[in-house]
Structure formats: C-alpha cells, structure tokens
C-alpha cells in the first residue's frame, strides 16, 4: 500500500511537488491544501482549507489517514506549521519556525553568514531612515536596498543610482510599502555576475544537492521591468561550470547546514541558495527555506528516483536516495496576468492546453469559472507554467514556445527569452 501525502500550498510549485510524488510507486494519493482546480486534472485531490488554518489542517490529516505532509510555501513555515504538526504527532517535511528565519529575516541570514564566513555581499542593517540615507550617500551606487522580512520577492531594489536607492528607502520607511516587513532594511554591495539557484534536501548537517537552475526575476524580456516572483527557469545552467557548483557546495551549502546545527536551529527541509557567480567565486544573495518557484517546475522533472520515498526516508531518519537525469534539459515559462506584478488584472479565460509526454502544464493562480464546468479563469498574478524537456536547452525552449505561441493568451503575457543566456 502506497502512502497518502498532504501538500500545503496552491501554486505551480506545489503542483510540481504533488505531480512528482504521484509519479513514484511509494505514494498512492496526494491531497493539496488549498490547491487549485488545475491540479485536479493530474489526479491531485484538493481541499479548500487555507494554508494558515493549522488546526483545520491537523484535523484533515487525522481524518484522511495522511502519512506525512510536505509544506510548499514560506508563510506557513514562518508561522510554525511544522512545529504545530510535530506537537500533534504528525510528520511534516520543512523547517520549524526557528530554522525558517533563514528566509524570514534577511538580517538573521546575513549575521549567520558573517559569523560562519559564508561568502555574501558586504552589508549594513538599519532601522533609521536618516542613517540609512547617509550610508547610501557615502557608499555610492550601484547598491542594493532590501526590506527585512517577507515581501514576496518584491522588497528588493537594485539601485543603479544614489537617487534610486534613496527613493527605495523612502518607500520603505515613509510610505511603509512593505508594511512591517520594512521596519528594518539591509543595504548591501551590488554583486556582478550570473545568478543561479542551488537547492538541497537538508537534514541537520546532512544534505543532498539538486541540479542547478536559473530563474528570470524581471517581468519583461531582456531583464527589463519590475522584479516578480519569477517568470521562467531552466536547468541545467551550462554557463555556470561544475567547478563553480562544487565551490558553492563546499563554501555555502555545507557550512550553512552546519552553522544552523551549531547555532541550535538545525534545518530540515529544502534549503534554496540564490547565488551570484562573481569573479571572486559564488556568493549568496538570498536563502529560502523552501523550494523555489519556478525553479521546482524545471528541477523536479529531472528527478529519476522515487520522490516520496526520498522524503519519507528523510523524515524517518533513514538514508534517502535521489538520482537525477544528467543528460537532458528542462525549461519552463510562466504565463502571467496582464499588469503583474504591479497592477494585476485577473479574470482572463485559460485556454485548453494539450501537450505530449515531453511537456507539462503546472497551474498556479487559476479558479473555476462560475458557469461552465471546465472553464478555468486567471485568479492571480502567476497563472500557470508550461514546462518541456528535451535533449538540449534549445530543444526544450522550442517545445515550450511552440505550445505557448499557439494559445490565445488574451489578458495575459509571458517572456519570450527564457533560456536565452544559456544559448
Ligand atoms: P532577493 O529577493 O534577495 O533574491 O533579490 C531579488 C533580486 O535582486 C535577485 O534575484 C537579484 O537579481 C537582485 N539582487 C539581490 N541582491 C543583489 C546584490 N547584492 N547584487 C546584485 N543583485 C542583487
Ligand atoms: N524563484 C525565486 C523564489 O522562489 O524565491
């Protein structure tokens, strides 16, 4: 008998997690809370329970004979959902509240890296507008201003001029654009180089790395426009050499896992290292305490071993096995609502998308239309992601755009250059 798993979350990342779990023999059924109606097309069962309603989720696990839980997004992790499940005697994969600070507080993450000599940009933390402005003026541009706390990837300004940095500080301290998240600000040096994402399964000091990937954070082609949660990704990233990846594992992943153990906040879950390959080697720009989105949608299709068996082994103190496809490539492009991420206009009808075995559609912000059984409508910024695998990145890219370019995407948009940096 296979296991029953509950995945918490509702995005394309959780769709990819649930779909990959169902592909393995060890898992028999996957529920997703709250999930989205697009996931149901892949046999994932959804329950409308909110990811913040921990008590109802605990009841749901008990009532449905769920064996273990996978927590997708950062918000419930930061709220201590894993601690709550543990108190109820339920196994949940993800960091507890104390360990999730590695994502929840940029100040915590920066101090951890400083104490353990983990390479990152030099920085200062401020809770006072005048001192922050003085620092920017003294330091000059380019310079990076980050609101402390969670701001859904939108609390960061990479300022190419001093004026732009000062404006960002006013937005945080005077306009309170990020609410409480802006009570503190981290100002750091600008790092030059290509970005890549290195995700690992972590259990205390032990870790198992995944293939690297590259996200595209800006809204429009050519890395123009505002920062978003991510508009597309691909894996592997051939322009980042194996030597750089090895160095990142030795100087970043390994000491980070060890540092969390040494500081009494051992981390179990997915550790996401957002890195820049600088002329001085890889450096951390951010940690996340969970899978990246859209990175997960291009990395998990490369997993060859049974995903559920791997997580289950991690939860049970056993040795997990994770084996990856090392030959091919995967690429995914996000279809977003018009105006995202600034003035998002939702409600666009989602066209039916038919794909072959090399491709998959992962749904995110979609809802059922009130009338019409099978009609989905866009309900938030990122609507869905189309992913394809191929022998090369170019091949995967051709397949994805072959699908997207043939759709009626009225009321939505997507980038046309995902993967271009690798070609
Ligand atoms: P974060 O939310 O910290 O990942 O930042 C969002 C984006 O801002 C990153 O994906 C980078 O593109 C950019 N960024 C953040 N920190 C730096 C930095 N120190 N130097 C250059 N770019 C950065
Ligand atoms: N794609 C970046 C993130 O998940 O934060």
TrEMBL record:
<dbReference type="InterPro" id="IPR037123">
    <property type="entry name" value="PRibGlycinamide_synth_C_sf"/>
</dbReference>
<feature type="domain" description="ATP-grasp">
    <location>
        <begin position="110"/>
        <end position="316"/>
    </location>
</feature>
<dbReference type="GO" id="GO:0006189">
    <property type="term" value="P:'de novo' IMP biosynthetic process"/>
</dbReference>
<dbReference type="GO" id="GO:0005524">
    <property type="term" value="F:ATP binding"/>
</dbReference>
<dbReference type="InterPro" id="IPR016185">
    <property type="entry name" value="PreATP-grasp_dom_sf"/>
</dbReference>
<dbReference type="Pfam" id="PF02844">
    <property type="entry name" value="GARS_N"/>
</dbReference>
<dbReference type="InterPro" id="IPR020559">
    <property type="entry name" value="PRibGlycinamide_synth_CS"/>
</dbReference>
<dbReference type="InterPro" id="IPR000115">
    <property type="entry name" value="PRibGlycinamide_synth"/>
</dbReference>
<dbReference type="InterPro" id="IPR020560">
    <property type="entry name" value="PRibGlycinamide_synth_C-dom"/>
</dbReference>
<dbReference type="GO" id="GO:0009113">
    <property type="term" value="P:purine nucleobase biosynthetic process"/>
</dbReference>
<keyword id="KW-0067">ATP-binding</keyword>
<comment type="similarity">
    <text>Belongs to the GARS family.</text>
</comment>
<dbReference type="InterPro" id="IPR013815">
    <property type="entry name" value="ATP_grasp_subdomain_1"/>
</dbReference>
<dbReference type="InterPro" id="IPR011761">
    <property type="entry name" value="ATP-grasp"/>
</dbReference>
<dbReference type="InterPro" id="IPR020561">
    <property type="entry name" value="PRibGlycinamid_synth_ATP-grasp"/>
</dbReference>
<keyword id="KW-0436">Ligase</keyword>
<dbReference type="InterPro" id="IPR020562">
    <property type="entry name" value="PRibGlycinamide_synth_N"/>
</dbReference>
<comment type="pathway">
    <text>Purine metabolism; IMP biosynthesis via de novo pathway; N(1)-(5-phospho-D-ribosyl)glycinamide from 5-phospho-alpha-D-ribose 1-diphosphate: step 2/2.</text>
</comment>
<keyword id="KW-0658">Purine biosynthesis</keyword>
<dbReference type="GO" id="GO:0004637">
    <property type="term" value="F:phosphoribosylamine-glycine ligase activity"/>
</dbReference>
<dbReference type="GO" id="GO:0046872">
    <property type="term" value="F:metal ion binding"/>
</dbReference>
<keyword id="KW-0547">Nucleotide-binding</keyword>
<dbReference type="Pfam" id="PF02843">
    <property type="entry name" value="GARS_C"/>
</dbReference>
<dbReference type="Pfam" id="PF01071">
    <property type="entry name" value="GARS_A"/>
</dbReference>
<dbReference type="InterPro" id="IPR011054">
    <property type="entry name" value="Rudment_hybrid_motif"/>
</dbReference>
<protein>
    <recommendedName>
        <fullName>Phosphoribosylamine--glycine ligase</fullName>
        <ecNumber>6.3.4.13</ecNumber>
    </recommendedName>
</protein>
């Amino acid at each position: 008998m296979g296991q029953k798993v509950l995945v918490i979350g509702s995005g394309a990342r959780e769709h990819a997690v649930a779909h990959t779990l169902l592909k393995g023999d060890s898992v028999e059924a996957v529920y997703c809370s709250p999930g989205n109606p697009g996931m149901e097309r892949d046999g994932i069962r959804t329950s409308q329970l909110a990811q913040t309603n921990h008590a109802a989720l605990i009841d749901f696990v008990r009532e449905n004979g769920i064996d273990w839980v996978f927590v997708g997004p950062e918000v419930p992790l930061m709220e201590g959902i894993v601690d709550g499940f543990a108190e109820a005697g339920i196994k949940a994969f993800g960091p507890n509240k104390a360990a999730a600070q590695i994502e929840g507080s940029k100040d915590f993450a920066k101090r951890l890296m400083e104490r353990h000599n983990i390479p990152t940009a030099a920085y200062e933390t401020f809770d006072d507008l005048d001192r922050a402005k003085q620092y920017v003026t003294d330091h000059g541009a380019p310079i990076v201003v980050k609101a402390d706390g969670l701001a859904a990837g939108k609390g960061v300004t990479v300022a190419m001029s001093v004026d732009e940095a000062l404006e960002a500080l006013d937005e945080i301290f005077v306009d309170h654009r990020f609410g409480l998240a802006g009570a503190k600000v981290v100002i750091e040096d600008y790092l030059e180089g290509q970005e890549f994402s290195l995700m690992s399964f972590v259990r205390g000091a032990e870790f198992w790395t995944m293939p690297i990937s590259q996200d595209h954070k800006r809204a429009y082609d050519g890395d123009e426009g505002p920062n978003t949660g991510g508009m597309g990704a691909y894996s592997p990233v051939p322009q980042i050499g194996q030597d750089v990846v090895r160095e990142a594992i030795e100087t970043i992943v390994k000491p980070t896992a060890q540092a969390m153990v040494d500081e009494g906040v051992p981390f179990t879950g997915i550790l996401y290292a957002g890195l820049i390959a600088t002329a001085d080697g890889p450096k951390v720009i951010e940690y996340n305490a969970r899978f990246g989105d859209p990175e997960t949608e291009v990395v998990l299709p490369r997993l060859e071993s049974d995903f559920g068996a791997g997580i289950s082994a991690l939860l049970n103190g056993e040795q997990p096995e994770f084996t990856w496809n090392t030959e091919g490539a995967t690429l995914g492009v996000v279809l977003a609502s018009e105006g995202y991420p600034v003035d998002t206009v939702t409600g666009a009808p989602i066209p039916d998308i038919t794909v072959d075995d090399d491709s998959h559609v992962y749904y995110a912000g979609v809802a059922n239309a009130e009338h019409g059984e099978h009609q989905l409508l866009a309900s938030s910024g990122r609507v869905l992601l189309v992913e394809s695998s191929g022998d090369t990145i170019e091949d995967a890219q051709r397949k994805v755009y072959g699908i997207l370019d043939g759709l009626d995407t009225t009321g939505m948009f997507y980038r046309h250059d995902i993967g271009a940096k690798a070609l």
